[in-house]
Amino acid sequence: MKHPATILVVDDEPLNLAVLSRLLNPHYRVLATRSGASAVALAAAEQPDLILLDVKMPGMDGHAVLAALRQQEGTRDIPVIFVSALGDDGDEELGLALGAVDYVVKPVRPAVVLARVRTQLEIKQHRDRLRQQNGSLEQELARRVDELLLAQELMLSGMAELAETRDSETGNHVLRTQHYVDLLARQLRQDPQHADALDEAQIQRIVKAAPMHDIGKIGIPDHILLKPGPLTAEEFDLMRQHTTIGSRAIRHAIARAQGTLGQAFTEATQPESLRYLEVARLIALYHHERWDGEGYPDGLAGEAIPLPARLMAVADVYDALTHERVYKPAWSMETTDAQILAGAGTQFDPAVVQAFEATRHEMAQVMQRLSD
Could you tell me which residue ranges the Response regulatory domain spans (predicted)? Predict the structure, then answer.
């Protein structure tokens, strides 16, 4: 059974309350109060569908009541009809400017009041129905976004694992570098200059995106990727392309997600999974850039290199040096640490190297625990 709409009537004159209550009671559930303050409290507690509000009241007048209602989340959207004996057109304009939906002049005419109440309730019903429909559509869109981006994420993760398994000596490289990046980022966050850029959400994105850093290796021929010795200049040029290959794959995944969903997201509206993929794209593209501008693929220098890529650069090199590769033996911890520290200001961001120096014992423990 459909419940009648609830109407709150506010008037400091008992006679006016009685007249309006008798008029409305046969059709609606009526609440009544004689003060502005109690009207605000009653509206918050009962959530009426419509308020008939007297303008001229002692203490808190109708204008102040409406202003208070509009400041509260729960009462902001309740429609208000001003009811007043004031006859100045300026009073009516002020009431409507404050957000009232209509204005009824005393003495009230029953047919006019009932018609205007009915009209405003119908408008509210349509608005509420539209809001519910929009809410359902937003939920469905969110569900589709989650499903689609999960599929994209799994696909890219699978590609990243495939790229790593092509190099049989990388072993736990992906897992170790995730831990290294996490340690470095959390240490660097203690620096006030980097705290805002490394809130918890961003650190989670960076750690989650770290396995994608070498996804582009899937496009590098085996005779180059697995060559047991130094690469020629031509071979090295081909190897360097893994950065752009990986970035392009992730960029296409983001574009496909946006195209399938039928919209391009702004930075403010971008779903979390797309934010993570964008971080992954930056890491894949720029983790071989150098602080001094001598890296690749774009020769970026200093802070022009995205921070996630600067963190990944140290983590990636640290892991490569401490483990055997087809082209080199594993370095000792002492030699590796010295190499990283010496790279501050040339190969690496000095601030990230400072974070490395503060966490290198924890990184060594990760390396030993997850050794190939």
Answer: 6-121
String of DSSP letters for 75-114: TTT--EEEEES---HHHHHHHHHHT-SEEEESSP-HHHHH
CA distance 19 to 134: 39
Q: What is the pLDDT of residues 35-64, one digit of tens each?
A: 999 999 999 999 999 999 998 889 899 999
Domain ranges of the chain: 6-108, 137-369
Q: Give the residue among 296, 313, 293 at the shortest CA–CA distance from 355.
A: 313
Residue 225 CB neighbour total at 10 angstroms: 19
Determine the 3-state secondary structure of 311 from DSSP. Answer: helix
At 190, list the tokens: 């203690």
Task: Report pLDDT digits (tens) over 324-371.
Answer: 876 778 899 999 999 999 999 999 999 999 999 999 999 999 999 988
Q: Is the dihedral of CA 313, 316, 320, 322 positive or negative?
A: positive
**In terms of pTM, does the model score above 0.90?**
no
CA 91 – CA 112 distance, rounded (Å):
19
Pick 137-369's CATH classification: 1.10.287.180, 1.10.3210.10, 3.20.20.10, 3.40.50.1100.
1.10.3210.10
Please check the confidence at residue 160 and state whether its pLDDT lies above 80.
no
Question: Can you name the residues that pair with 84 across neighbouring β-strands?
Answer: 105
- 3-class DSSP state for residue 150? helix
Backbone torsions φ then ψ of 214, nearest 5 degrees: -110, 25
| Tokens 């650190």 sit on residue | 203
Q: How far apart are CA 16 and CA 18, in angstroms?
A: 5
- Per-residue CA distances from 317 to 116, 279, 312, 362 (Å): 73, 19, 8, 16
Q: What does the CA dihedral 41, 45, 49, 50 come to, rounded to 10 degrees?
A: -10
User: Cα(237)–Cα(148) distance, rounded to whole angstroms?
Assistant: 35
Could you give the angle at the alpha carbon of 259 between the alpha carbons of 135 and 158, nearest 5°?
100
Give the CATH number of domain 6-108: 3.40.50.2300
- Residue 105 has what pLDDT? 85
Tens-place pLDDT, residues 191-213? 999 999 999 999 999 998 998 89
Q: Is the pLDDT of residue 264 over 60?
A: yes
